[in-house]
Write a structure and sequence with these properties.
Layout (H helix, E strand, L loop, with lengths): L4 H17 L5 E6 L4 E6 L6 H16 L3 H6 L24 E6 L2 E9 L3 H15 L2
Antiparallel strand pairs: 1-2, 1-4, 3-4
Helix pairs in contact: 1-4
Length: 134
């Protein structure tokens, strides 16, 4: 089972609505179960540099089946995942905004959001993930 383009559109629509609500332009990416991009949107005014970050947040969340926020907390010096950000040719992102999408208890893809503070990115990603389960 994997996310579909229809799922990705629903995720992006919901996440984009949240970004508009908080008045923060975002990059929103959705990947399938294999970590491949299904869809990405860069809202008007969102950072160009955030495109790669959003896509890589989604990839990271799927590659390790963990929220990037949690991975970041566990990758600090002395923690179990210290140094993980240097793996996978630099694609690993260790700050908030990447969340795996589960259906029936299985990871079927992930969402990555970039463009605001970590809290804003996380909030927008969470709304996207909620839309995937509807």
């Amino acid at each position: 089972m994997t996310l579909t383009l229809t799922d990705a559109r629903a995720i992006i629509d919901a996440a984009e609505a949240k970004a508009l609500e908080i008045r923060q332009p975002m990059n929103i990416a959705v990947v399938d179960v294999g970590g491949n991009v299904i869809s990405h949107v860069r809202m008007d005014g969102a950072w160009l540099g955030g495109i790669d970050i959003a896509i890589n947040k989604a990839f990271t969340a799927r590659a390790f089946d963990i929220q990037t926020k949690e991975l970041g907390e566990n990758s600090q010096p002395g923690q179990q995942y210290y140094g993980i950000a240097a793996s996978n040719h630099g694609r690993i992102i260790i700050f908030a905004g990447g969340i795996p999408v589960l259906r029936g208890g299985e990871v079927i893809g992930a969402v990555g959001v970039s463009g605001g503070t970590g809290e804003q990115d996380q909030a927008v990603a969470e709304v996207g993930v909620e839309a995937a389960s509807e």
